[in-house]
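Quiz preparation item.
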């Protein structure tokens, strides 16, 4: 597994927020140089950590409905049904849960009529129940980096010690800062507010 440091995490956080953000802007925000950001991004690409630069489309604006599909099926049928569903372009995400009661949970998107007719396009043998539930409000898409991941080497923004275990993340002025504990976060916050008052 690749080791990431604070700068890698900061760069990734910026690009997750907006993959078209300029290296100049990222470098300024991370207090580093454009060539450094450039070489870090290249390294992240080479390591396959950044898989692609993509866009986030507002489906509602182009008439695409998003829904959740829940399928309850017998254990024998589950894998076959999952495979059939995965072949449909409307299926965006699919989970087979370990709970035998709600065996498939899937995020689907597409034309509303096609979504509500999804059950007509698969073999329903062994399927006890199939439901398409329209999404009223947008999906929560959490693209933040899970900090408990052992591959991250973070240092505390207040005491500079290496963070062991879970880091405390806090945004100040839309920038992410990481701390070893809540005490450090609190102290940093006090100092930060003082700096703001002086400015
Ligand atoms: Zn600390």
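Solution:
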């Amino acid at each position: 597994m690749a080791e990431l440091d604070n700068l890698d995490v900061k760069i990734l956080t910026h690009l997750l927020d907006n993959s078209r953000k300029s290296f100049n802007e990222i470098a300024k925000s991370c207090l580093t140089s454009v060539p450094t950001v450039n070489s870090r991004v290249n390294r992240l690409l080479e390591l396959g950590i950044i898989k692609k630069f993509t866009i986030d489309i507002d489906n509602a604006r182009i008439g695409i409905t998003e829904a959740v599909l829940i399928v309850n099926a017998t254990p024998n049928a589950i894998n076959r049904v999952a495979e059939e569903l995965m072949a449909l372009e409307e299926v965006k995400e699919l989970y087979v849960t370990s709970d035998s009661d709600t065996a498939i949970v899937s995020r689907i998107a597409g034309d509303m009529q096609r979504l509500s007719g999804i059950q007509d396009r698969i073999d329903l043998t062994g399927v006890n129940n199939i439901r398409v539930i329209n999404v009223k409000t947008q999906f929560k898409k959490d693209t933040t980096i899970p900090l408990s991941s052992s591959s991250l080497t973070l240092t505390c923004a207040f005491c500079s010690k290496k963070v062991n275990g879970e880091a405390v993340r806090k945004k100040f002025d839309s920038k992410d800062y990481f701390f070893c504990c809540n005490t450090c976060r609190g102290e940093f916050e006090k100092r930060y507010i003082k700096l703001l008052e002086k400015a």
